[in-house]
From TrEMBL:
Principal subcellular localisation of the protein: membrane
Membrane protein topology class: Multi-pass membrane protein
Pfam families to which the protein is assigned, alphabetical: ABC2_membrane
Keyword Oxidoreductase: no
Organism: Streptomonospora halophila
Cell compartment(s), UniProt: Membrane
Protein name: ABC-2 type transporter transmembrane domain-containing protein
Occurrences of domain ABC-2 type transporter transmembrane (ranges): 12-205
Protein keywords: Antibiotic resistance, Membrane, Transmembrane, Transmembrane helix
Transmembrane segments: 20-38, 50-72, 104-122, 134-155, 162-181, 215-239
UniProt KW Nucleus keyword: no
Length: 248
């Protein structure tokens, strides 16, 4: 655990020392809310619409933090000469993976907290303490497919390929999952297809956590669990493939 904490501290400081990287990870979801939710009176002045918009941006914040930290971050580490040396140490991969998870979860919280704090102040969104307590485990569960997906990208691609790959995954999935536009504005075929995406599942669970009267979607739980298992397999495969190619 001590080694994992030290790895997490190192990773956090590496990013924090580059202000633009830290700002993009943390501030980008808040900027989205300030540009597209707060000025829109039809959303900001409607308590339910503002709360739904906050939940959607929160899911996007989680996806953005996971894909960038675990995808682009891992690919960047693999390009350094320090990475092969760390892999030869007897501690094994567990402390490094645990440290990266701690670091990633820290950035997830840093991205989500400003949105959760500013939304009730600048809009009519409501987030009671009970909803906030429920939202945290939902957020952590919802981030798992993106976490493992980020690992799969980072361990299978170079830094030049990881960044566009992460963006190519992030923005189409965010749109089709209802994170930019509410799903009730989708055509029927897109609404049906989006239920199979982890972004839509994470959105549905987040909406359930922060709004009263919304039924818990069993389909969303199954979809998230399925994507988590699939991306976890891909992450393990990518790690072993990278290890086999670089350390034979």
């Amino acid at each position: 655990m001590t080694l994992a904490v030290q790895h997490a501290r190192l990773l956090f400081l590496e990013t924090a020392r580059v202000p633009i990287a830290l700002g993009f990870n943390v501030a980008f979801p808040t900027v989205l809310m300030m540009f597209f939710v707060v000025p829109n009176g039809a959303i900001a002045d409607d308590p339910r619409a503002a709360t739904l918009a906050t939940a959607q941006i929160t899911v996007f914040a989680v996806m953005n933090a996971c894909l960038l930290n675990f995808g682009v971050g891992v690919a960047e580490e693999r390009a350094r000469a320090w990475d092969p040396y760390l892999r030869t140490l007897p501690a094994g991969p567990v402390p490094r993976m645990a440290g990266r998870l701690m670091n990633g979860f820290a950035y997830v919280l840093l991205a989500v907290i400003p949105v959760a704090v500013l939304a009730p102040l600048l809009t009519e969104a409501t987030l009671p303490a009970t909803s906030a307590a429920l939202a945290l485990p939902v957020i952590l569960f919802g981030c798992l497919p993106f976490l493992f997906g980020g690992f799969a990208i980072g361990f299978s691609m170079s830094i030049k390929g990881a960044l566009p790959a992460a963006q190519a995954v992030m923005f189409p999935m965010a749109f089709a999952g209802g994170l930019f536009l509410p799903p009730d504005t989708f055509p029927a075929w897109l609404d049906t297809a989006s239920h199979a995406l982890p972004t839509r599942a994470a959105r549905e669970l987040s909406v359930w956590a922060v709004t009263d009267g919304t039924a818990l979607s069993q389909t969303a739980i199954v979809v998230l669990a399925g994507w988590t298992a699939l991306t976890a397999v891909l992450a393990v495969w990518a790690y072993r493939r990278d290890e086999g190619r670089r350390f034979r």
